[in-house]
């Protein structure tokens, strides 16, 4: 990318790290004005009750299998193709992967239940095995099982003394490495891009599909990288990083990527792309990998693709899909997975842009009572077949991040509405059921594990963030916390890190000035060098003299994050906003 596209990329990258770490390292114990302490405690208790209603029913009726079927109080082994088999056809002595238990461990710590956390850790240490003839989805197994085990291991060995001394001997890390070794067989392709499916016992089976998604092969770096950092074995990170590099090399001249591809030929299958299903966590992991591991390579990828997303996908507060080759719009639709995007924007300080999109998602939630899986923006109607809501966490996640960034009590009220809807429409005697049809609120017999690992966790943190006090964490796409450690970072010049930003922040510390602290998007921040810092949302005009013939030649304004337009005189500017 040309130097002329932004001033002081070094300062911008430093600001993103500072913004992210100030957000994740701060203690916010005081209730926001307008949302009193009693009301906050009441909401905290409601979320706690939600979590335990879901968790206890899983433990009673589904454990040690993967997930709970709350309407019938039975189970499903949904992580693998075994979930499609009847009980009598399961492999002999197969007990399941205890997926929901693994997913719940970090949430138990967030809720302060170290006793149940210890019980879960010890059961997994004694009983969990991956030596089973089961075909699993690599992406889902990575973010749910590997990520859950690594996070629980870290929480079991940190300085909080959550477990009785001497009873834990890194068994979860051993299990995680065993799983990671099994994953490596998926990367044995001509391109280095991994297969989407792998048999845990036998590796890639004959005639396995070669189709995967951008997220599926580009969202492995946090978990695989953390596994390498914890074990000292670089093979896991190298495999995930090579796949990410190969994927990035397949981008178009517009810096856009498609949705699905062939891992053997390295050719795109679906050229249309957006910020939702099939691509979402790819963006997320580029930025979070930069924060977690400190490599310039991750930042350069993220910054380039973020600019491209803002230029070709953004339409006001909405994001449509477009052809990666031309940038032309293909599908005008909202998908529930897109609701993660405002939370990601908070990590780079684009607060105003995040707020604008978040409010639109919430308006859709208010209209239907929950967030439908797909909504057609161009026709202003629900998608005819994707009218379900599987208890997804993305809106709650972005609400949590926006509250932490702004302290606006309105976001607590949004959380209150989400909690109310979940209890009204999804709660049943046997747990929390997914919604099959948002127009009728017909329920479906499935309680996804991410309801406990993410939805309940982010809602609880919205009202009680004690878990984050004095800590730096990055949450994976499945809501599992990984610590930001200076020892995990690649060697960086001191100018990148003017202070040790991974240390615990004291009350007397002077906060760095940033777009996060000033609550504007973007902001020109005075630096010691006297040079400004641009927001990552800035897209320059096509011509340095700002001349234009059409609106398409104008970029995103660097002081408001608004789309610039072409005037009758032929110059780009914010003309539509002048009174």
UniProtKB/TrEMBL annotation:
Its EC number is 3.2.1.-. GO terms for molecular function: calcium ion binding; mannosyl-oligosaccharide 1,2-alpha-mannosidase activity. Keywords: Calcium, Endoplasmic reticulum, Glycoprotein, Glycosidase, Hydrolase, Metal-binding, Signal. Gene3D superfamilies: 1.50.10.10. GO terms for biological process: carbohydrate metabolic process; endoplasmic reticulum mannose trimming. Its cofactor is Ca(2+). Residues 1-29 form the signal peptide. InterPro entries: 6hp_glycosidase-like_sf, EDEM1/2/3, Glyco_hydro_47, Seven-hairpin_glycosidases. GO terms for cellular component: endoplasmic reticulum quality control compartment; membrane. Ca(2+) binds at residue 477. It is found in: Endoplasmic reticulum. The active site is at residues 140, 280, 373, 394. Its main location: endoplasmic reticulum. PANTHER family: ER DEGRADATION-ENHANCING ALPHA-MANNOSIDASE-LIKE PROTEIN 1, ER DEGRADATION-ENHANCING ALPHA-MANNOSIDASE-LIKE PROTEIN 2. This is alpha-1,2-Mannosidase. It comes from Dendrobium nobile (Orchid).
